[in-house]
Amino acid sequence: MEPGDAARLRPGRAARALPPRLLLLLLLLLMPPPLLLGRGLRAAAAASSSSGAAAEDSSAMEELATEKEAEESHRQDSVSLLTFILLLTLTILTIWLFKHRRVRFLHETGLAMIYGLIVGVILRYGTPATSGRDKSLSCTQEDRAFSTLLVNVSGKFFEYTLKGEISPGKVNSVEQNDMLRKVTFDPEVFFNILLPPIIFHAGYSLKKRHFFRNLGSILAYAFLGTAVSCFIIGNLMYGVVKLMKIVGQLSDKFYYTDCLFFGAIISATDPVTVLAIFNELHADVDLYALLFGESVLNDAVAIVLSSSIVAYQPAGLNTHAFDAAAFFKSVGIFLGIFSGSFTMGAVTGVVTADVTKFTKLHCFPLLETALFFLMSWSTFLLAEACGFTGVVAVLFCGITQAHYTYNNLSVESRSRTKQLFEVLHFLAENFIFSYMGLALFTFQKHVFSPVFIIGAFVAIFLGRAAHIYPLSFFLNLGRRHKIGWNFQHMMMFSGLRGAMAFALAIRDTASYARQMMFTTTLLIVFFTVWIIGGGTTPMLSWLNIRVGVEEPSEEDRNERRWQYFRVGVDPDQDPPPNNDSFQVLQGDGQDSARGNRTKQESAWLFRLWYSFDHNYLKPILTHSGPPLTTTLPAWCGLLARCLTSPQVYDNQEPLREEDSDLILTEGDLTLTYGDSTVTANGSSGSHTASTSLEGGRRTKSSSEEALERDLGVGDQKVSSRGTRLVFPQDDNA
Amino acid sequence: MEPGDAARLRPGRAARALPPRLLLLLLLLLMPPPLLLGRGLRAAAAASSSSGAAAEDSSAMEELATEKEAEESHRQDSVSLLTFILLLTLTILTIWLFKHRRVRFLHETGLAMIYGLIVGVILRYGTPATSGRDKSLSCTQEDRAFSTLLVNVSGKFFEYTLKGEISPGKVNSVEQNDMLRKVTFDPEVFFNILLPPIIFHAGYSLKKRHFFRNLGSILAYAFLGTAVSCFIIGNLMYGVVKLMKIVGQLSDKFYYTDCLFFGAIISATDPVTVLAIFNELHADVDLYALLFGESVLNDAVAIVLSSSIVAYQPAGLNTHAFDAAAFFKSVGIFLGIFSGSFTMGAVTGVVTADVTKFTKLHCFPLLETALFFLMSWSTFLLAEACGFTGVVAVLFCGITQAHYTYNNLSVESRSRTKQLFEVLHFLAENFIFSYMGLALFTFQKHVFSPVFIIGAFVAIFLGRAAHIYPLSFFLNLGRRHKIGWNFQHMMMFSGLRGAMAFALAIRDTASYARQMMFTTTLLIVFFTVWIIGGGTTPMLSWLNIRVGVEEPSEEDRNERRWQYFRVGVDPDQDPPPNNDSFQVLQGDGQDSARGNRTKQESAWLFRLWYSFDHNYLKPILTHSGPPLTTTLPAWCGLLARCLTSPQVYDNQEPLREEDSDLILTEGDLTLTYGDSTVTANGSSGSHTASTSLEGGRRTKSSSEEALERDLGVGDQKVSSRGTRLVFPQDDNA
Q: Where do Basic and acidic residues bias regions lie (chains A, B) (predicted)?
């Protein structure tokens, strides 16, 4: 790679590289002296401050004591953050080492967890327990805890903010380890700071082609599958809990709604490890798309589902009995929040697309990148401010940005934005996984219940099976490209849990049930990431899933580009009576082995969406053709002229879009390119060429030229009808 | 630029671009409905929750009320952050518009402030004042306010954290505007989150060449100048305050230490606007370096100086009298904190350099960038944890990273890190300036005192004059390239205040004096950024400062590359008696007009540093030559072999470093390249070529070849002495 590599092989003066761990150890050794020095300086400052025995002594002392405490608290915050940075640094260096040595059994997330565990052990058993600094006030308040308090301290007023509730058992514990508390974050940090970059990046880096190709299946797995999984796991766990109660292992209340909640949160899969390995080995792209799409969407579904379950509050004395009204209200809340968040995300994506389209911001990559970042972040805040779920909004914003805005960015901004979110994603994800490892030891309210844990493992296994196999069966009835048994097994196997399940579990650990669920979730995550993640590569070969599948190259794609099928025409019907004759093109390609093409219903929705997207949405939001002036009716003329950017007229090669290949395999489409319409019929199988246009714009798109080259057909007479031109059908059809 | 531009000129179908503000207005209009919808959903959820009249009603109600309040609080946080994002978005779009139309009278920071002002007005007079949610507890505590409180609410315990002190006058005010409070950040946010990226970027993007060339002057301006400025302004303000007391305009205490504190914080200059204009117009690079270097370092000095002044606590009854012991303690604290922070920063930079040198992380730009980011962030935390100043540490870390680590990064990582910090810097800076504009209206404790304000303007003017002119005079005694009058006037003019002064002022606004200072600082910042910043371009032409100065191109630099001067040799002395004969090279170039070169004392320290840096530090920390195995004595052999990377032996072109040109103009240096030593003598003026080597390594560096080409000299016999080769002196010398 580098010239230095050649030098390395040279004998004699080859230098021995210092192991990175050695450097880090040096760093650790270097840490204490400055810490002491610094503390010395501060102590000197404080001592000089407090040595003054002035008349204002007492209040000065109070001020200083408060200041000192605030300073000490700040110092501890810094140390705790430093701990995490050290963890992440170690993780990065070890990841490099693993990549260097091609180690695949342990992925970076699993590694981060291990390091978190180690540091957790050190913190738990290594740092001294200090006596609690809390002061208990015995004043009682009438009705509730306010969010801010004003406390009178000898005439001075201090403002306090509500942090949270403390369970009675822990209140009077003298031994409170300050360090452990400092490394324990407010769970909302996950939802407000750490998860958004991860989820946004997932949406923004979606491989659109295969995602949309398998959209129906992905939606089915994500929505129906998660609901099924939640229900089944919930019921199984309820049985386990009942068992525990009988056996006497249950110390406190554990309701059915709690079980359902557990089912919801544990249904959020996060197969990071598996996908990373798929990526590296270039495993089957459809399988990748299915897994990735499912995991990304079921995170969204799990959040909203768990919120809806929590919001389930039936009327009547028993707050945990079934109440149809409350049930439907929960369903309504689910739908409302989900669609609201979806809309927020889509709207922000659309606004960003329009802004980047109509300004020349692409001349200034810094401004463009900053704007992109701000708009994406604003989605989250907007959704949260409106009472929806920020993380879900951010997901759909990412998908929208990838689909529309990305095309408007300058080349430099594209790489800048991708890199920016990639770095944020990387740091946030490894941070969460480190924290998971840490939390096993630093979390002070664990409830380990072997029966529950074993029951949970069985439940998620069965839940996953009930999720994957039946759904795949039904999907295969409609899919052109069946999901084979080995794919289904792989999907079954890839049910890893990760960041989302953890974050949902840690969000509220006030009650006994929630604490038990949190502990169990943690262990499930550990097991699935380490054991199942580690077994991915062997499993891939055992299931004979092909790897090393390259995306078809540019030239291949060009050749197969003009394979069209007719839209919405039942192959058994006659052609429409308006004497249009349609081009018929059909080619061979990778789908020739895929069998029967006449089943169109499963792709109908998609094709409808795709035409709409291509003919209207993309022209509105990006610079791609066809120009709206040609596709919109005449009365929209003014609007069309406003929304069409001049670049469209130059851009006669819209098929450079990545997902154009979708039309090759999915069904019949009517697509308008520039002033030409190419319509294709799927039922007949002859080859015919498209031609250049007469009248209107005579510019030939290069793809048309390529096709003519490929198929060797000359000009043919075309008829013009309004703004659409249709081609005469070949006699062979 | 783009093909689309050509299309734009095409008549007929030219599209009318939607103005960006129109889009934003649309966004604003779209906001209310979702807000209402979302609130409706949440209300429905809450209503269904609270409709249950269960036995656990009261505690459930409490819980829900607390939850609702927490949720409402979260919602308001989101809305306040959204406000800032909107501000930043508007700023970005307007910046683009200004750049598009080449508007230079208003820089982005001034623009951000204006938008902040507008939104501040809207928030202050547009949002309804809501009654305070605070609950006043009348329980008294014995001695002090603890950082955490446990409050007993009907058997439940809630934890509260100390937020801050409230002045008695405001405690009972019924009208508290929640919105205003939500957009008022804890001042520590500036020091912990916003300032570090700005300062790091300043260090990382330092134009090293000119910075180091003017290092002495910059240090003088930054340290001595800031101290002088602080003292003068402090004293002048003390006079003003005394005047105010006599006139009866002073409502509360205002000590001498407060005046000195004001002097310290207001001495932190931030000529962002001026530098941006300099950059755009390519104004004189030395002036740029002086201004930039001074502003960056005096920020650091101002922070530590203000902390030292605050730490000044004399013994005895009068806490504000002069106490020599306390004074020297303050000085000691200043030196200790400054050097401690410097060391932290440098150490982290060095560790990062070593890690990137000895691992092959450059194969993985993502990992490398993430590591770089984490290590830089860790500087801050480390310094804070040790009790030093994080911002100062981060500055020196940035400089160190730019000087060493940058050379070890892969090409992609270099651009990634630069872009990452550029974006963070951009966002943070504009955020702070927006906040400044906002703070004029949202800050609820302003103290407007016309006498003080006018006095402050006069004081900073005089302080700047006392800072610039005398120092320049003394520096010119020693400088080769004098700082001309027009430069001095420009520097005098460029005393803009900005983010640092603001952050230091807002850090503690508890007392009357501090509030007055904060208000005054805000107004000073407004005035200097808008008026003085706006007047930069006219001032540049009025002072006849040349613009459009390009950095010498690569080829120019190559030609003049081999202009060396002898190190440490007094031109009046004889050459050293060891019969070494030295190469003498001297060329013409941009310095020929700069006059006398024999004054070497001012550059001695720099030259000493430069040799040390080039011969030892750079080889240890980067891949540049010369190899340590050649420069270190024999007993360090093992260490040298450990620390030398194999790339060094290939890297015979160390002069590709940016700052190598420094040696062309500064003085005499002995530099070792590979196994060759080129030593140059500044006093004589003849041209001689260097030659290739005999023995040892025979690889010719391309620069040597280039020189031979340029000067047309063939091989000459060289003598070898140990690991250094010296060249025979030309007879012309």
A: 695-712
